[in-house]
Amino acid sequence: MNHLKQAWRQLILRPGFSATVIVMLALGLGVTTAISSLFYQVLVQPLPVPEPHRLVNLGNTQEGPASIQTSFSYPMFRDLESQQTMFTGVAAYNNLDASLSYEGGAFNASAVVVSGSYFQVLSLQATVGRLIGPQDESRIDESPVVVLSHALWQSRFGGDPNVVGRTITVNAESLTVIGVAPEAFAGTELGVRAQIFAPLTMYWRLQPNFPREAVGNRGFGWVRLFARLRPGVSVEQASAGINTLYSVILRDIEAPLRTMPADDLPRFLQGQMTLLPGARGQGSIEGAAQSLALLLGVTLLVLLIVCVNVANLLLVRGASRIGEMAVREAMGASRGRLIAQLLIETAAPVAAGGVLSVVIAALALRAVAQLLPARLADALTAEIGPLAASFAAFATVAALLLCGLFPALRTARTNLSLAMKGYASQALGGHGAGRTRGALVTTQIAFAMVLLVLAALFARSLQNVARIELGIDVDSLVSFSVAPRQNGYSPERTAAIYDRIEQELAAQPGVTSAASGAVPLIGGSDFVWTVGVEGLEDRGQVESRFNVVGPSFFSTLSIPVLAGREFTLADTTGAQLVAIVNERFTRDYGLGRDALGKHIQFGGPQALEIVGVVADAAYASVKAEVPAQLFVPRSASGGSGIFSMFGGSAYFYVRAGVDPDALLRMIPRVVGSIDATLPVGNVITMRRQAQDNIFLDRLVTILSTSFAGLAALLAASGLYGVLAYGVTQRTRELGLRLALGAEPANLRALVLRQVALWAVMGIAVGGCAALGLGRLAESLLYGLTAFDVRAVAAAAVTLSLVMLAAAYFPARRASRIAPMDALRNE
Fold it and tell me: Rounded to an integer, what distance in angstroms lies between the CA atom of residue 561 and that of residue 580?
């Protein structure tokens, strides 16, 4: 109890010191907790299901992990499901964009179609009603039921337990609600928070433009599979068993596939079955593992700087308490008791910093969410849950030991005779203590240098990304999507409403043009199809990205037409089958200036004539090299095959001379005036779309720069504290130097030389360490390597200026000591 009273007394008597420690630890622990929470949610958090470690994802590989294919055909799934013996069950699913209507309201929803074994394999029970089971998929198109997510049940249905039996409209189909999924469960795919679940066999009714032949086509891969291991069965045993079955299934596939050349066979009908860990579900964010691991390492460095800084402050404070410690020891206090007393005193501000860090962590997570695309931000939990709070508590205890134990040991190790004579500095270790404090300052500078170099590398990398020529003028351009086929529109009515939306938007004040395409540009969607090119028959089918677009598409996006023309309203009639290619297409396939008039075989028996060549422009990604692209007019979208798959939804682009934010508000109003039941989705400026496409680059750069700035300020404050204490301890010496004729400039130089030594050592060590860490992060950099001289130089100059600024006031004070005051205080 006496220890606690003394700790509270120290907290009250030294409010400035305590506040400094609390703020520094709250910042260090807060950012570390926030990034560790983000790291856990994205890369570690298992699915909220029983025994998630027994789940495995099914894939196929021919050449190792880098070439794993995760899509299988529907017949292949049924074969595996019915014949396997190594799992308690195999489940299949596919994502579905849905338009949901209920009681007069319509909105877009994220849906998943699941096999009857889906919830059984996950071992889940319904909150209300029941979940989809084998009885709900006996026949194709004949199970019009739906399960609501817990979040949708709460937000749209008020948590009404009588929701079971009600009817909702999904993609123009009436489905009966049979249950509500468990509260924490929102699907098995990272970044996709499912709001409704429907039977897999209903996919063709809910997605009418999806090829019907996929029901029995063994070569059409579109479902993703996972399974649960039987008790006592290892992954190795299951892998051997499933591959034995897989080889039997491949031998029994229908004749047309057996006679196909090996290179033309679908990927999942070649190679071997691979079992991947399924505890976290499916899907990943490219580059997230390395980026978040790097950010977590950066925040741990910040926390280390905080701990070193606090340790230095405690050493300085301990020097002023040598006399007190000596008296306590003389009165019989043991060294262990003194150490315990000092640790308890330190624990009070450290604990306060730990509590405050939870608030800072929550604020930091919300700030991070603003840098993420909407789909990922929605899947991120910004609140600090029990696990994150436990991490904060553990980190607080670790910080207490890191920053409090060594100063307590040093302070409690007093020299009684020297302390009684008043020589506190000698009692604390004399020059040895000074070297210790100097080493801690050098360590802080080295850590700050590491973070500044990394921040400079990522800042330069982001600058290189910003210089990429997209081929599209993203300013004053807004995009949005509609999906009429999900509302039950016929192909003809869908095409008509596309035309009307374009016309109505183009007629709005300030709007200069509007156009549409089936594939969202710079949206991460990468659709590849094989085409036959006239004159290249010897090369067979070649690959090309494609898009189904409307009139004025290229002029709206400011993509120059280099030869020929762009599509017009006349092309939408389908009287003439035409196509446009980009410049990369002509280069890759040797068409050159002779591209116009050539024919392309694509998606149907009739050839398309090339009527235009356009400049290269970004397709799916900002950073990826522009691929060969083929554009076809919307006239073909009502047909069969590939066109029917991409005619049910469209992404519109609206260019205007007004503020893009005004367009964001105007677009839903205009579409609603055309059809109030047609939900508008993905309304976003193209500038923001481009930023979302490189969100990892922006996230790493902004956070690493922020953390590096914080580290530099912490290092500067640590340097300032040590120098200020050193000047105070050397007041008599400095006063005597002035009395004996030393110039004030010489005394300033005396202090600054010490700072320069620490800075040079810290910058050198930190620079070398940063180059090593930069090599690990090199794959995240764009257009430069880790050995970037300008980045290292910028970090060194910045840190040097910060250190000089921190040293200025202590050095200035040292040069202004009055000799008589120094001698009077002796």
Answer: 10
Q: 608: exposed, middle or buried (C-beta count within 10 Å: 0-12, 13-18, 19+)?
A: buried
CB burial of residue 378 (10 Å; 0-12, 13-18, 19+): middle
How far CA 145 is from CA of 54, 174, 201, in Å, comes to 29, 8, 11
Closest Cα partner for 718 from 242, 313, 129? 313
* C-beta separation of 662 from 511 below 8 A: no
d(CA 667, CA 680): 8
Residue type, 290: Q
Question: Hey, what are 455's tokens?
Answer: 């921040």
Q: How far is CA 365 from each of CA 44, 295, 725, 816, rounded to the nearest angstrom?
A: 17, 13, 37, 47
**Tokens 């910058």 found at:** 763
Q: Residue 66: exposed, middle, or buried by beta-carbon count in 10 A (0-12, 13-18, 19+)?
A: exposed
Report the chain's C-alpha Rg in angstroms: 34
Q: What is the pLDDT of residues 543-585, one digit of tens each?
A: 889 898 988 999 999 999 999 999 988 887 766 788 999 999 9
- What is the C-alpha to C-alpha distance for residues 718 and 314, in angstroms, rounded to an integer? 11
Give residue for tokens 């490189």. Answer: 694
Strand segments, DSSP code E, in 615-698 are: 629-633, 650-656, 681-685
Compute the distance between CA of residue 369 and CA of residue 95 in angstroms, rounded to an integer: 24
The span from the CA of 571 to the CA of 551, in Å, is: 8
Percent of the chain with pLDDT over 70: 80
Dist. CA 392–CA 426, nearest whole Å: 38
Residue 629 CB burial class (10 angstroms; 0-12, 13-18, ≥19): buried
Q: Are 163 and 157 in contact (CB under 8 A)?
A: yes
HEC letters along 308-347: HHHHHHHHHHHHCCHHHHHHHHHCCCCHHHHHHHHHHHHH
**254 in the Ramachandran plot: left (φ > 0), alpha (ψ -120 to 50) or beta?**
beta
What residue spans of 320-415 are helical by DSSP H?
Answer: 322-330, 335-369, 374-379, 386-412
Pairing of strands 578-582, 607-614: parallel
CA-nearest of 734, 733, 739, 732 to 826 is 732
- This prediction has a pTM of 0.82
pLDDT digits (tens, 9 = 90+) for 512-546: 999 999 889 998 888 888 888 887 766 667 888 98
CA distance 665 to 654: 13
Output the six-digit token pair for 162: 């009588």
**AA letter at 667:** I
Query: Residue 174: what pLDDT?
Result: 92
Q: Are 160 and 134 in contact (CB under 8 A)?
A: no
Q: Tell me if residue 102 falls in helix, strand or coil.
A: strand
Return the higher-pLDDT residue of 33 and 7: 33
